[in-house]
Each structure stands twice: as structure tokens, then as C-alpha cells.
Amino acid sequence: MDIVLLSRWQFALTTIYHFFFVPLTLGLGIYVAILESMYVKNGNPEYKRLVKFWGKLFLINFAMGVVTGLVMEFQFGMNWSEYSRFVGDIFGAPLAMEGLIAFFLESTFIGVWIFGWERLSKKMHAAMMWLVAIGTNLSAFFILAANGFMQSPVGYVINNGRAEMVDFGAIITNPRALYFFAHTITSGLVTASFFILGFSAYHLLRKKDESAFKISLKLAAVIGFFATVAVIGTGHFQGMELKIAQPMAAAASEAHFETQDPADFSLIAGFTPDGKNVTWNVTIPKALSFLYYFKFEGEVEGINNLQTQYEAKYGPGDYVPLVALTYWTFRIMVALGFLMALITLVIWFYSGKKFPRKGNWLLKILPIAIFFPYLANTAGWILTETARQPWAVTGLILTKDAVSPNLTPTTILISLIGFVLVYGVLMVIDLYLLIKNAKKGLAAGDSTSEPLDVVAVEKTSGGK
Fold it and tell me: Are 75 and 9 in contact (CB under 8 A)?
């Protein structure tokens, strides 16, 4: 019943829930834009049917992302007013840019795209979808710029007990933010790839609209493979940057307690019940140094040494995050990344064939594999936010000092339960709409009489 812990749980719930929708929106918008550009180029009506099919699912997911994202911003004033007071001058700037530029860009042109079928030229209509895709990814950039400041603060001065911005350019070019952006955009493409692979496989197994879904299957396999490789690559370089900007977070994610040169890599480890210490460890000699320096030598500072440094710099306290959580979320994310790279490579190989019986088992696992990027995304987000603890903004304000001072455990608990119930209902609605519309398949023929609008989505979903 601690207000800090309850507030963290509440924000974690809303953040993770919101982040279910973000990567798919980022990636699926690009896919729809690509498919429509291909339709403009070749005039094949199958591509138009695919655009409308995946576009409808994009709209459903986009709407849910908007609703859940708005709630998060209110929490900065409700649960984290001290954080907002201390860093609001900086944190508010990229959020304002996201709202005024990116969100208005995507929301305006998504309306033009929805109602512009047969009213705009093919090229102009496709351009609208590209602007939507650019807008959604631009939104992500500004949000990640704000989060990058929390991880590695730059471009500020402390004045009268508050952090004030002195260099907006430094904030939006923060290396942490740029690595976040590259990693998030590629993970969005991976999420959309497996979403498309899963539902394409579902229809291919039922021999429904095979020619069209073979197109989307192969496209998703090719883009998915390169996107997964890019996720792994950007993730690795992000880890190298993490060692510089947040050495404690890097050490915790590796359960690396003692400073070593060369440093061993922990392959798998067991932890004490409190998750703070290792009970057993299987290591690969010198491998951690190689990962950081591309050579089998190089010092990597350990948790114990960093704790001593932080106490000398910031005063007495426990500056070690929950090691077991950061350690395992990192490994879950990495393992799923390599697994998804393998799956997309195999599907790419088989997509040029007719999927003989021996290849049907691959199609059968793809609907299940839809969940893999969601698990990886969630693990990565938990890793990023928990490895920073106990800081709300690294080195500037502790999480315990960022919470609103006049809250009571009871009020937070009531709102937390309310969020769980409401979000649970929204999740059921979202899954119902996505699954029902995805299983329904493509519209018959080259339907041009009814635009892809909200009414059309409601009709197919049992609405009025």
C-alpha cells in the first residue's frame, strides 16, 4: 500500500497496455503504404483488396492506441506531479511537438485516406497513406526523445530546483533517443510482419483468397527478416550506448557484479528470492568484453563498484535495480529476436513455393507466432524502464521524489483497479474487432462503391 509502488504499478499497467498497440500501428501503416504503392504501380486489384483489408485492421489498432495514449499523459499530473514540476519545461516540449505536429499530421491525413477512395487519384491517395505512416513514426520519435531525456538527460540546467531546457537540439539528437527510435521503428515492422504472417497463414490454410494472401505472406517474410535483423543490430548498438550512458542499467541487465577485464558473459543464472543477487551462473569467458568492444579484452564495470561510485556521488542509498527482472527481460527479448529472424527466413524460403504438405506445419505455427513480437516488445519496455530505477530521470530525480505528495494509497488503489477493469474490457473489444475482421478475409472483388470508413468497420464488427 505504498504510494510510490502503487503509482509505479499504475503507470506500468497503462504504459505496457498502450505499447501493445504502438508497434503494430508504426509498422502496419508502412505496410499499407507499401501495398498501395504497389497497387498504383501494377494496377492489380488484388493489391487494392489487400490495402483495404490491412487498412481496416490498422484503423482499429490506431483508434485503440489513441485512446490509451491520452490516459498516460494525464497521469503525469495526477500521480507524478513532482516529476512534472521538476522536469516539465523539458519533458513537455517534445510532447507538445508530438501533439501539434505529428498527431495532427497523421489524424488529418488518415481522414483524407479513409474518405478519399475514388475521390483522389491513385497516386494522391497512396501519398495520403505515406503521410499517415510518416506521422505515426514522427509521433514515436518525439515521445522517444522525451524518454531519452529520462534515461540520459542532456540540454538542460538546474535553476531554482527545477530542470530547465537550454538546448532543444541536444534533446532531439540525444544518442539514447536516436537508438530508441531506430530500435522501436524496426520492432514495429517486425510486429506488423508477424501480424500479417499469422493472418495470411490462417487464410492460406483454409485456401481462401490464396493468390492475395501469398502476396502479403511473402512481403511480410522479406520485410520481416530484414526488420528482425535490424532490430537485433540496433539493439546491440543501443546496449553499447547503454554501457556509456547508464552503466548500472547495463551491468544489471547482465547480472555483472564484479568489475572485470576481460569480462565474462552470463549465459544463464539463478537468483536469490529478492532478485538482487546471483546464486549460480553459467558464463562464457571474455564474451561480454567482445560484445562491448569487438575484442576479447576491455574493462566492464560491475554493479558493486558502480554502487560505491553512486553513493559517493549522490549520497547513501540503493542504486541497484531489480537485477533478476532486467536480466531475464533482456534475455527473453534477445531470444525471441533470433527466433523470429529464423522464422521469417524459413517462411521467405517457402513463400516462393506452393507450400506442400511438408511445409504446412510452418503455416500452422504462424498464427501463434503473432504473439512473439508482443512478448519481445513488452520485455524490452520493462527492461528499459526498470533498469533505470531508482531514478525517474537518471542522476537528477529519484522515483520516490517524483510522485504526487498528496495522494493516498486508497485513491491510487481504487484508480488502479478501475484501470485494470476498463482496460480489460477494451482489450476484449480490440481483440474481438481485430480477430473478427481478420478472419473474415478480403472483400469480394474490387469493391469501389463503399469507402473504407468508420461506418464500414462498424458494419463488419456488428455495429449499427
Answer: no
In single-letter form, the type of residue at position 422 comes to: V
What is the rounded end-to-end Cα distance, in angstroms, of the chain?
44
Instruction: Specify the pairing of strand 265-271 against strand 162-165.
Output: unpaired
**pTM of structure:** 0.89
Q: Which residue has the cell 497497387?
A: 39
For residue 328, being part of any structural domain is answered with no
Q: Is-contact 455 96, C-beta < 8 A?
A: no
Tell whether 34 and 181 lie within a shared domain: yes
Number of domains present in the structure of the chain: 2
Q: What is the mean pLDDT of residues 344-373?
A: 80
User: Cα–Cα distance between 199 and 262 in angstroms, integer?
Assistant: 47
Range of the domain at 284: 248-320
Secondary structure (DSSP) of 90-153 = HHHHHHHHIIIIIIHHHHHHHHHHHH-TTTS-HHHHHHHHHHHHHHHHHHHHHHHHHHHHHHS-
d(CA 435, CA 224): 21
pLDDT digits (tens, 9 = 90+) for 94-148: 888 888 877 788 888 999 999 998 889 999 999 999 999 998 899 889 999 999 9
Please state, in angstroms and rounded to a whole number, the distance separating the CA atoms of residues 384 and 268: 20
Distances (CA, A) of 30 to 35, 72, 133, 377, 409: 9, 25, 5, 18, 43
Angle separating helix axes 323-351 and 371-386, nearest 10 degrees: 150
The grid coordinates listed for 66 are 489513441
Q: In this structure, is residue 380 part of a structural domain?
A: yes
Mark whether 259 and 228 lie in a shared domain.
no
> How far is it, in rounded angstroms, from Cα 141 to Cα 98?
8
Three-state DSSP class for 62?
A: helix
What is the amino acid identity at position 367?
P
